[in-house]
Amino acid sequence: MHKFHGSLVALITPFKDGRLDEDALAKMVQWHIDNGTDAIVPAGTTGECPTLTHEEHIRVIEIVSSVAKGKIPVMAGAGSNNPVEAIYLSQAAQKAGADGLLHIAGYYNRPNQEGLYAHFKMVHDETSLPIFVYNIPGRAVVNILPETLARIAELPRIAGIKDATGNLERPWIERQLIKKDDFTWLSGEDSTSVSYNVAGGSGVISVTANIAPRLVSKVQALCEANEWVKARELQDKLMKLHKLMFKEPSPAPAKYAASLLGLCTEETRLPVLPISEQLRLEIKTQMQELELI
């Protein structure tokens, strides 16, 4: 089994009075270890990386890696539309103790497919940890085509893909093009993760796992065991919560839900605002139905 598989939590970053809450972060990582999460993905989009300083970004990875070391692997968010910055963050993440890296495509710059390949090759050649390519056209605007991903995958340390395209034919197509035995397909969407696993995926980088780690982990374990009917039934129960996590700008819904669990405050950084009273009610009700609170 690949090192990164199953339920990987796209970890929220806890704040308190505008500052990184280091104690809450360390306790949160241990809580995930205790509740069956298979790997931690800190300092990604859900971790509010766009509004972290470089110092905060690296400190988050240091804390997560320190607590998780020897227990579960850490895939650190280190991406940037600037490959020079991506290399800097990658090298810092390795020093901080990360086991792998997650790299986004060139948002805002909007490179063509050849530019995307050149970006990932430059980052690859200047770093030494396994790299997961993050394809999320909804945020990055650009779409890494299957043929481009296959080229990128030929680089030795390109380990897999986080696919948040929502296009469930992508893994079928990509598996015809990528013959690397150890290449890992991970879903970047909670709501389609079971279907993605049917198509060859081996896990999910999950927002919902911030709130329901045991349930998300169980869904993934059922998929791994080819217990597809049971996985579908549990996924059915989680679907409302999956959708609520994105009803208003993320990660505000997940942070509110985490506050109900006593994990951290619901504080986010601008331009993400606290969620509405209506959504608070919906999330609390759904968490009660799932017996999370």
Characterise the protein shown here:
- This protein is α/β, with parallel strands linked by helices.
- It has one domain: Aldolase class I (TIM Barrel, Alpha-Beta Barrel).
- Helices cover 45% and strands 13% of the residues.
- It is built from 12 helices and 10 strands.
- A 5-stranded parallel sheet has the order 5-6-7-8-9. The protein has a 3-stranded parallel sheet with strand order 4-1-10. Strands 2-3 form a two-stranded antiparallel sheet.
- Helix 4 links the parallel strand 6 (100-104) and strand 7 (131-135).
- The chain is globular and about 45 Å long.
Task: Describe the secondary-structure layout.
Layout: E1 6-10, E2 15-16, E3 19-20, H1 22-34, E4 39-41, H2 54-68, E5 75-77, H3 83-96, E6 100-104, H4 113-125, E7 131-135, H5 137-140, H6 146-153, E8 158-163, H7 170-177, E9 184-187, H8 193-198, E10 203-206, H9 213-224, H10 228-244, H11 252-260, H12 277-289
Parallel strand pairs: 1-4, 1-10, 5-6, 6-7, 7-8, 8-9
Antiparallel strand pairs: 2-3
Helix pairs in contact: 1-2, 2-3, 3-4, 4-6, 6-7, 9-10, 11-12
Please name the defining characteristics of this protein.
single chain; 293 residues; alpha/beta; TIM Barrel; five-stranded parallel sheet; three-stranded parallel sheet; 12 helices; globular
